[in-house]
Design a protein that fits this description.
439 residues; mainly alpha; Amino acid/polyamine transporter I; 74% helix; Na/ntran_symport; transmembrane helix
């Protein structure tokens, strides 16, 4: 059997895992979720839920992945021979495949905006109209989606050391630096402090059951658990690394980037008299308008879309890696071919999502367009079920000796983690799953 690749360092693994978690969920979804749910209270609940619920589930994926030392399907077969738990791996693979099929569409939108920003073609007053014209143009969206997938394939085909780890090592630090630069510029605008107060001074009238559920869901999905991405990444980790510390570092980095995204966006929104409750259009409609009205706005707009592209790529390479790792079965001589074959298939499956806002806009699917249907299948069904099953597997199927051997934490922490993944996390996931169909 071929020797499985490993990360060359702990920091390489942490940056790659954090990159998988820090994507559009942290940079795009977190600000508009906070903006439409009262700001500071949502932020507080998000932090609590990330550390209390999301972190233990993330650690469960790490434990199962390193224990299995293989792709998700094979790892679960090895850890529970003769049982059907390996179906979790197939569920994660299918969910990742579908996510990347429409995620790459959004990646293409980002490339379109970045190209326009570079050649100064975002100088307009109708950013809503510009956004609608871009996503309705079939040639542009398909070309941009194809370029985004090629970038993703190019990184994944080079493997863990030469591709994913190397890319994460420079993309993630640049992401942090760019965000800090933009945050400094945002908070120095006249009137920016109103945005800071919105983000950090609690308005307790928003402390409701609905806000709690939305914050719990955001924490859960922003950590990228439930699709076996973290399980797959952990399978490349050596036995010397401390899983608890790595999971904590990934969670903290995710919180940090989410808060930085809020600091970039909300001070600028308030400084220029915009509404924080604009919803999903904050990035593509509101932010270009904001950058267009500030000194050196064109430069900062380019920086923003570069870092957004970095964040999106770090997540897309994790999702493609799930599919590729299952296909190659530790045969790295097959990696390049598998990356291109699966990448092409994902692109083809994503074509209806790319055309959902143009030539296929009149086609109705459950939940809305093709794009909406793919999003519903994954975010409201695939990911919650996957995380629930992983939590149950780690809590009840793996023996205490196995989990303790992987965790190597203080006995009290081992027991606390076991209790959470057995009872608290599954209950929280079930609540989110049910509530998602009524919100």
């Amino acid at each position: 059997m071929k020797q499985r690749e490993q990360w060359t360092s702990k920091i390489g693994f942490v940056l790659a895992a954090a990159g998988s978690a820090i994507g559009l969920g942290a940079i795009w979804k977190f600000p508009y979720m906070a903006g439409t749910n009262g700001g500071s209270v949502f932020v507080l609940l998000f932090i609590v839920c990330t550390l209390a619920i999301g972190l233990p589930i993330l650690l469960a994926e790490f434990v199962v992945g390193r224990r299995g030392q293989h792709d998700a399907v094979t790892s679960l077969k090895r850890l529970a021979p003769g049982k059907q738990w390996h179906l979790i791996g197939w569920l994660g693979l299918g969910t990742s495949f579908i996510i990347l099929s429409f995620y790459s569409v959004v990646g293409g939108w980002i490339l379109s905006y970045l190209a326009r920003a570079i050649v100064s073609r975002l100088d307009t007053t109708d950013y809503g109209g510009l956004f609608n014209s871009i996503i309705a143009n079939p040639v542009e969206v398909l070309l941009a989606q194809a370029v985004f997938m090629i970038l993703t394939i190019w990184i994944v085909q080079s493997g863990i050391k030469g591709g994913i780890e190397r890319a994460s090592r420079w993309m993630m630090p640049l992401l942090f630096i760019f965000f800090i630069v933009l945050a400094i510029r945002s908070v120095t605008l006249d009137g920016a402090m109103e945005g800071i107060r919105f983000l950090f001074v609690p308005d307790w009238s928003y402390l409701t059951g609905k806000t709690f559920l939305l914050a719990l869901g955001q924490a859960f999905f922003s950590l990228s658990v439930g699709v076996t991405a973290m399980l797959t990444y952990a399978s490349y980790l050596s036995k010397e690394e401390k899983l608890g510390q790595s999971a904590f570092n990934v969670s903290i980095l995710n919180i940090f980037i989410s808060l930085l995204a809020g600091i970039v966006i909300f001070p600028a929104v308030f400084a220029l008299g915009q509404s924080p409750a604009e919803g999903p259009g904050l990035i593509f409609v509101i932010l270009p308008a904001i950058f267009n009205e500030i000194p050196f706005g064109g430069f900062f707009m380019i920086l923003f879309f570069i870092l957004l592209l970095f964040a999106t790529l770090t997540s897309s390479i994790a999702m493609l890696e799930i599919v590729v790792s299952t296909g190659i079965q530790n045969r790295n001589d097959r990696r390049k071919k598998a990356a291109w074959v699966f990448g092409l298939l994902i692109f083809i499956v994503g074509i209806p999502s790319a055309l959902s806002f143009g030539v296929l806009s009149d086609v109705e699917m459950p939940g809305g367009s093709f794009f909406d249907f793919a999003d519903m299948l994954t975010s409201r069904i695939g990911m919650p079920i996957g995380a629930l099953l992983i939590s149950i597997f780690a809590g009840f199927v793996l023996t205490t000796a196995d989990t303790n051997d992987e965790l190597r934490m203080h006995p009290f922490l081992n027991r606390a983690w076991k209790f959470i993944v057995r009872f608290i996390a599954p209950l929280a996931i079930i609540i989110i799953f049910i509530a998602s169909f009524f919100t």
